[in-house]
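Hey, can you fold this one?
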Amino acid sequence: MHFHFGPFRFDARNLSLSSSEGDIPLRAMTLRLLHELLKDAPNVIAQEQLLDRVWGRQEVTPGVLSQSILELRRALGDSAQNPSYIETKHRLGYRFLAEVKQYDVDDAPSVTKEPPPGDEDSPSAAPSTSIAGRRPSTAWGVVIGVIAMVVALIAWWEFNRDDIERHDALRNVELLHDGRPSEPEALNWYRQGLLALDGANEVLARERLEKSLHREPTAAATQAALAEALARSGERGQALQLARSAAKESASLPRVEQLRIGAFEAELDYRLPDAMAKWQAVSQLDPGDASSTMRLASVQISAGESKAAEVTLTAIERLPSALVEPSRIALLRARLAASRGDQRERLAQAELASRNAKGEAQQVAAWIEQAWAHALIGEPDAADTLMTQIDEALAATPDVPLALRRDLLSATLRREKGAFDAAIGIFDSVATRAAASGERAIAANAQREAGFVLALAGRHKEALARLIPLVDEHAALGDPRELASTLDVAGLAEQRAGAMKEAQAFGERSLALYVAAGDRLGEAAARNQLGMLFARTGRFNDAQHHWETALAAFEQIGDRRGTAIVRGNLATIFARQGNPQAAREANEKALVDFRAIGAIADVARIQFNLALQDRRSGDLVAAEARMREALDGFTRMGNEDFRLQAIASLAELLLSRADLDAAQVLLDAAMAGQAAPPQRLAAILSARARLASLRGQYESAQTDFNDAKRLREAAGLADWVRMSELDLAELAARQGRLGEAQDEARRLRRELLESGDIGAANQAGALLASVLLARRANDATERLLDELDSALAQHPEAQLALRADLIRAGIAGDDREGALGRVAARARDSGFEWLALQADLLAGGVAANAAITALERIGVRVKPLPPSFYY
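Sure. Predicted structure:
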């Protein structure tokens, strides 16, 4: 029976949908659903009836029906809001709206002007039997066709059975080695599906395996292979349902086959310990089964069992060479190295995979892995060279999934270089092409990455507009880890938009999903993210708890990079707690790990943190050297976000050293670049405002400080908003608005002490003391300085200690000039030249004249002399 509606034709016997443009590939279950809707059109069919008719007595949820309806609408170009073909009747079911014409097979009209070409892959395609322009009789045509088909199928049967029963390459992708289809044509489609899986072409694999399953619906091996194709495409929920069906069909198969499908089912259901136990049992029952042992290693890597994965991979390498594909082993080892953050080992294994690649697909996959490693090591030129090789290979042998992976890498590289618009454009292109080719998971992931870039660029509303629908999409796909990752990115966007409660809700939901899935690596990463969120909102105890829990997990897993990242984060907590030695030890341990695994960007980040510590301890020479290395690393990596932060911090350091011209050059270059993320732009503006303030350009300073404050308020960074307010209070004091400055400094000191930010509270205290001195409240100044001395003993900071001594020199009486001279000498020895010049200027006499000359040389106007301000 054929059904015609609109420009479409549905062949009920062969379960195929076509239009004038050719066949439209759909899953078998989706085609069966269409058949049921067409048969009963235009009547409404209840959801329960459709589930029973199409999926039978399988244990499925209504979600599978919704998913197939969505696929049908996409294939027909239909809309749920304004349907032309399929209408949803709320709480009732579905009905087919369009006029449907039914024909018997022999009477059905064609929807094409010319006879459609034969499918070259189809076992039923046969050459024309016309002779001298005349068609043979129908009877003879049938006889000839049957004879040709029987002969061909016998040949295919012998070829396929001989090919599959041998330990050939297809056994590396075949999940079950028993329970294959017995019907010859079904077996051929099954084999073609395996070949497509072997070439990482999941869309073609699904098409071939669905045809096989249509011919022989109870073949357990076909069900298992189709489940794997669905899982690779990201449709994990559908894959799990099919795997459960395959497990039922495998009840009569040997024990080892039942274990294989049980292990795969456990993987899909994220019961990773169960999956590992079953794959381990398979390996013991069938020691020569390299493919199952590789699956065990893969699950061990996913579960964070890196040491166990190392043992398993070593065991595989000891198998006879005929059973092992070195390229696949090397790619697994590259993945293991990547999970540990060891980019140099990842590169070495990817290069080994490239040398041993069999076929273009393996070669391109190895090159993509190498390009990732080069990019993360900080070798962009090598990554670009590989991208050229990849492009040449894909031009010669097109491969849609590999091309999509290549473009994802290209977009990520552009994102890291700060080319946000270009990155978004490529991610959008990948999403569109992936959706068109049936790669739903890749499409959703590309959309998520585009949302991430939008969040980095400060376009929070646009980011959330993309990400929120993706939460539902990933939920429909049934992969909790991908859903958790999307929630993480949505949380980042909410955080940068200043919606901290929403960000926390997303982060905690993500963490719960990772925990439920048994994904220890994901759990540790989610805890690290939550720790950063809590640190930014002043909840340092909560941040420390999550970071310490994440650290223990990363150490147990053996993820050296994860361990180092969390140590670097904990160092910021130790510094806030007034334990600089613990902070330095944590950072230096992290630095050793990052250097060992070739993580250039992370080395730069730790050097940045250590530079800040050197500055606090009073070693500005070492601080500048570290900060310049950090800036160089971020620049080499093309990481615009961190590069701008390093520029702002280096500019501040140069201001302390009275190198105003060098700071000006850095800041001008930063402001001339493309749009910066809000918090980085705030840091650049603050540094530029401080430079303007030192030069007496108070109006410009006021504008930049206010702009920085607004950016930080919009991003929800409460601690940094207070620092902007402290900057504005200092500017008010320098302009002589002492009452305003005093009230603000006192309020900020109180709030910062309450939030536990002792270092910033000390800065507010020093400013308050200088204002009290300027207002000649000497007794109050001295009491506050005594409090500061006590606080600085617990939380040392060289520059603040020098400022406190500078203020104390202002109430030194007869020894004022000598006290200022001693402050100037100590400041100059530590590299704090600006503070030394201030002390000289306040001391008067010869020292002041020399200071005036030096200040004028660096572009600071000091005549007439500014009011005395000890700060």
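The longest helix spans residues 138-165. Let me know if you want another pass with a different chain boundary.
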